[in-house]
Design brief:
Blueprint lengths: L1 H29 L2 H4 L2 H24 L6 H6 L6 H6 L5 H22 L5 H25 L23 H30 L4 H32 L10 H26 L3 H23 L13 H25 L14 H33 L7 H7 L1 H16 L7 H7 L1 H17 L7 H22 L7 H9 L3 H25 L2 E7 L4 E4 L2 E12 L3 E12 L2 E13 L5 E4 L1 E3 L4 E10 L5 E9 L2 H19 L1 H4 L16
Antiparallel strand pairs: 1-9, 2-3, 3-4, 4-5, 5-6, 7-8, 8-9
Helix pairs in contact: 1-3, 1-7, 3-6, 6-7, 6-8, 7-8, 7-12, 8-9, 8-10, 8-11, 9-10, 9-21, 10-11, 10-13, 11-12, 13-15, 15-16, 15-18, 17-18, 18-20, 20-21
């Protein structure tokens, strides 16, 4: 009965979303307050109904109700409770329901917190958001119903894909979808702006917090996916330019550009047309990612194995919203005012350079991802575009972007002084040069460009520190004054500092593990020892064990440490009961200096096991940098000017009694 309630709630959510799509839009066009007032309760009702539907599906998973086809196909009674819950979104149908739940949650948030918005703008935003909900609710109900029953009900389920039975994968999809779906708010604001012909600083201030929230979630979601692939797939790497990885990376790049262009629009009312277009394209890239993952056109460990007919439906949604939005943009772009002018050497100019490089980088990733698919559809030939292409096209665009990054903060709005900015960054330049020289001396055997690339990461961090110290006027006042200025810096300034520091930290991690990774594959029996990067690794033995829903062979490795207790690391090979699928669990000794990474391979004819040993220098900095970027975004989002989207109202003047 509860399952049927969930299904019925989803149908009601579709009907409510249809009303939310039509009535407020008509009200905004006719300036009818009663029709526009429908938007807020409808958005809240949609959230309640989709939440009921999602809760019903979760109930079916927790209770192992195998009469529900989705539960039977993706769960098992012996599965741990964490993975019964995460199994709700560990499949196509359930993940789409989560997608829609996050979508209506964003709409309800605008309905609750958007009291400062003009009525017509809020009505058009919520109507546009509802139109997206209608499209995906129809998709779920017509092609991907998660509540379909099986009669008679099977006694047991088939189980969840073993590689998805991992704590990181329990959190990775919700954050990733929150990023994907969150950019729908920027899209809805862009459509509302085009409908009203209003793009100004206030619009940019209204759209920035939603864009920032989506960017934060997508940043953390991508980082979690990278971390999961690092320790779960047993290949020793953190990124492979997989097409589905690219599908989430492209909207992240475009969203980063959108954040910076919206800043220019808010401060100087410039880049109006470009910012609106970028808001449309960012969500369009999110829709493309959804299509690539669910269409069946890609073969990837990250992709859902679904039939192409569903992909055609999502493709139609993507064409409808992207094509419709671009058509509206083409019709209305001529009526949008261009905004203020500025010199090339200015803070606006630096942010424009940021946008140009990020947009070009997004284009290179897009070409590398789609070209094999287009070629195969036209000629039938199958080719692979891998890391060499992306390293040759993407990296050269990022280097000048990172070098230019610290300069932008020291340039004035409208017109800047490049010489003065260079002088203020002199200390950062000295630190950077020293880093390059030290790294070059330590790793003089190569690769020779690695010390320079490492110095770029240090340059970004040193530039961020220099900006904060400059704003605190270090050296121009006493300690109390410097401390007062530091504590009075707006949260958005601290957020920018932390996020840019995170970028530099991530660059250091990427360079370190890419340039100086060590790898060794050796056959080992109990008692054998191998050496890598100064570590002596001894295989103590192989243990056979039983887990809650799997059996495993565990290799126990001992790593001596001078003056301390030896490390004991376990690398295992698991075979799950349902479905019968093997997985690999790496043995990892984590440290900021680098990870010792051990994989237990297959048994050999002589009784030994193939063991892969890696040392990944500075790899933790990659995920530390992503966490810092997320924290920086949270600091900025907590700044009232960005969170509320309107300046604080002035207090009314106090009455002065007459004498």
């Amino acid at each position: 009965m509860i399952v049927e309630i969930g299904h019925f709630a989803l149908i009601l959510a579709l009907l409510v979303s249809m009303g939310q799509m039509v009535l407020p839009a008509v009200g905004a066009a006719s300036r009818d307050d009663r029709l526009m007032a429908v938007a807020q309760p409808a958005a809240l009702a949609s959230l309640v109904l989709v939440s009921i539907s999602f809760a019903a599906l979760t109930y079916a998973y927790v209770g192992s109700d195998f009469s529900v086809a989705n539960v039977w196909a993706n769960s098992h009674s012996a599965k741990p409770m964490l993975y019964k819950v995460s199994g709700v979104w560990g499949n196509h149908e359930g993940s789409m329901l989560l997608w829609v739940l996050i979508l209506v949650a964003f709409g309800a948030s605008v309905a609750v917190s958007g009291g400062h918005l003009p009525k017509t703008l809020q009505a058009n935003v919520l109507a546009t958001q509802a139109s997206i909900s209608v499209a995906f609710l129809l998709f779920i109900l017509l092609t991907s119903n998660p509540f379909e029953r099986i009669v008679p009900a099977p006694m047991e389920g088939k189980g969840l894909n073993p590689i998805l039975q991992d704590p990181a994968l329990a959190l990775h999809p919700p954050f990733l979808y929150a990023g994907y779906v969150g950019f729908s708010m920027a899209f809805s604001f862009a459509i509302a702006a085009l409908l009203e012909g209003r793009t100004d600083a206030a619009w940019a201030r209204w759209v920035r917090p939603w864009t920032l929230a989506a960017w934060m979630c997508l940043t953390l979601g991508i980082a979690m996916g990278s971390w999961w692939a690092y320790y779960e797939l047993g290949w020793g790497g953190w990124w492979f330019w997989d097409p589905v990885e690219n599908a989430s990376f492209m909207p992240w790049l475009a969203g980063t550009a959108l954040l910076h262009s919206a800043l220019v629009m808010e401060k100087r009312e410039a880049l109006k047309v470009w910012t609106v277009l970028l808001a449309i394209l960012t969500f369009s890239l999110s829709l493309m990612g959804t299509f690539l993952v669910r269409s069946g056109v890609l073969s990837s460990v990250h992709a859902f194995a679904v039939d192409p007919q569903r992909g055609v439906f999502i493709l139609a949604i993507m064409v409808l919203f992207t094509g419709g939005a671009l058509a509206l943009f083409a019709a209305r772009a001529g009526s949008l005012r261009q905004g203020g002018m500025f010199a090339p050497i200015s803070r606006e100019g630096a942010l424009v350079l940021n946008n140009v490089l990020l947009a070009t980088a997004t284009g290179t990733v897009l070409i590398g991802t789609l070209y094999p698919l287009v070629l195969e559809s036209i000629t039938g030939a199958k080719i692979s575009v891998g890391p060499p292409y992306f390293n040759m096209t993407f990296v050269p665009l990022m280097i000048p972007l990172l070098i230019a990054l610290p300069f932008g903060s020291f340039l004035g709005w409208k017109r800047g002084d490049l010489v003065a900015a260079r002088q203020r960054l002199m200390a950062a330049a000295v630190v950077t040069l020293g880093t390059a020289l030290v790294a070059g001396a330590l790793f003089w055997r190569g690769p020779w460009l690695a010390p320079l690339a490492l110095a770029v990461g240090v340059w970004v961090i040193a530039g961020a520190v220099s900006e904060v110290l400059f704003r605190a006027r270090l050296g121009q006042g006493d300690r109390a004054e410097v401390f007062r200025r530091l504590t009075n810096l707006p949260r958005s300034a601290w957020g920018s500092f932390i996020a840019h520091t995170g970028v530099g930290v991530m660059v250091i991690g990427i360079v370190g593990t890419t340039a100086w990774q060590s790898e060794k594959i050796v056959p080992m029996k109990a008692g054998d020892t191998a050496e890598i990067a100064g570590y002596r690794v001894t295989l103590k033995g192989i243990e056979t064990r039983r887990g809650p829903n799997f059996g495993e062979e565990a290799g126990v490795f001992e790593v001596p440490r001078e003056g301390r207790t030896p490390l004991l690391l376990e690398a295992t090979k698991r075979l799950y009961d349902a479905p019968r699928q093997p997985t690999t669990e790496a043995g990892i000794h984590a440290a900021l200096s680098g990870d010792l990474y051990i994989i237990l391979g297959d048994a050999q004819t002589d009784g030994s096991f193939a063991v892969r040993l890696y040392f990944n220098p500075l790899v933790r900095f990659i995920w530390l940098g992503a966490v810092l970027m997320f924290i920086g975004g949270a600091f900025s989002l907590s700044d009232r000017r960005l969170r509320v989207g309107a300046p604080r109202k002035a207090r009314p003047p106090m009455a002065v009694p007459a004498e």
